[in-house]
From TrEMBL:
The keyword Cell membrane is annotated on this UniProt entry: yes
Alphabetical list of InterPro entries matching this protein: 2Fe-2S_ferredoxin-like_sf, 2Fe-2S_ferredoxin-type, Beta-grasp_dom_sf, Cbr1-like_FAD-bd_dom, FAD-bd_FR_type, NqrF, Riboflavin_synthase-like_b-brl
Native species: marine sediment metagenome
Record's protein name: 2Fe-2S ferredoxin-type domain-containing protein
GO biological process: sodium ion transport
Coiled coil: none
CC per GO annotation: membrane
Stretches assigned to the FAD-binding FR-type domain: 102-242
Keyword set, alphabetical order: Cell inner membrane, Cell membrane, FAD, Flavoprotein, Ion transport, Membrane, NAD, Sodium, Sodium transport, Translocase, Transport, Ubiquinone
Length: 262
């Protein structure tokens, strides 16, 4: 095991995809730095179980944080959470082919307004001539930089302001000391080129736990103004309607309406 220096990550038995990287980081972060974006809905905290990949060699033993996400037979086959695997030695891994189609864009906020008391509709403009080739039900990950956001600075539509005052939400502050990311489903339909629309519900503390920290990324998004830069990666997702002649019934509510609108 190399405590420092470089190691090799072999991917899908393809010599052209092999990476020489610095050791020490997580597999998720290391691949991201090399332009390979594995989905991670929790931002690499080990809670969502989305960043699964197969580690055929290296990576150490399965960690307690992975046990609830990786079944025994999957663990025997080498499946791990990329956010929990430390890059300390040469690795041989397998990744789904669609991962290599994921890209990263720096977008500009076109608008960010309330569509409900705790939900904003964020519209991002992609760079000129760019588009995200997603399907309805797909999602992107938003990268959130370290910040301090005060709820008193949020622009809340007049028809919803009274509820914010009644619940004393203006007192809240979100402080984030390191970059984090979260996943949000697209609310626009795939044929709308040049933009990404997201419905974001702010994760404020529950009334019976007022001292719990508010949502890191949702708080940051609520404070975004037109013209601000936002970095996204995608498209990701497996929640797609199958091609069929059968009648379909869709159930959703709140921000969960986004994939259905799409």
């Amino acid at each position: 095991i190399a405590p420092g220096g470089s190691v090799t990550i072999s991917i899908n038995d393809d010599p052209e995809r092999a990476l020489e990287v610095e050791s020490g980081g997580t597999l998720l972060a290391t691949l991201s730095a090399q332009g390979i974006f594995i989905p991670s809905a929790c931002g690499g905290k080990g809670t969502c179980g989305v960043c699964r990949c197969r580690v055929r060699s290296g990576g150490g033993a399965l960690l307690p944080t992975e046990v609830s996400h990786i079944k025994l037979r999957e663990a025997r086959a080498g499946f791990r959470l990329a956010c929990q695997v430390k890059v300390k030695e040469d690795l041989v891994i397998e990744l789904p082919p669609e991962v290599f189609d994921v890209r990263r864009w720096t977008c500009s906020v076109r608008s960010n307004h309330n569509v409900a008391t705790f939900i904003k509709e964020l519209i991002l403009e992609l760079p000129q001539g760019e588009e995200v080739p997603f399907r309805a039900g797909g999602y992107v990950q938003i990268e959130c930089s370290p910040h301090e956001v005060r709820y008193r600075d949020f622009e809340i539509a007049a028809e919803y302001a009274a509820d914010w005052e009644r619940l004393d939400l203006r007192r809240l502050v979100s402080r984030v000391d390191e970059p984090v990311s979260r996943a949000y489903s697209m609310a626009n339909y795939p044929g709308e080129k040049g933009i990404i629309m997201l419905n974001v519900r702010i994760a404020s503390p529950p009334p019976n736990l007022p001292d719990v920290s508010p949502g890191q990324v949702s708080s940051w998004i609520f404070g975004l103004r037109p013209g601000a830069e936002v970095v996204i990666s995608g498209p990701y997702g497996e929640f797609f309607a199958r091609e069929t002649d059968r009648e379909m019934c869709f159930l959703g509510g709140g921000a969960g309406m986004a994939p259905m609108r799409s």
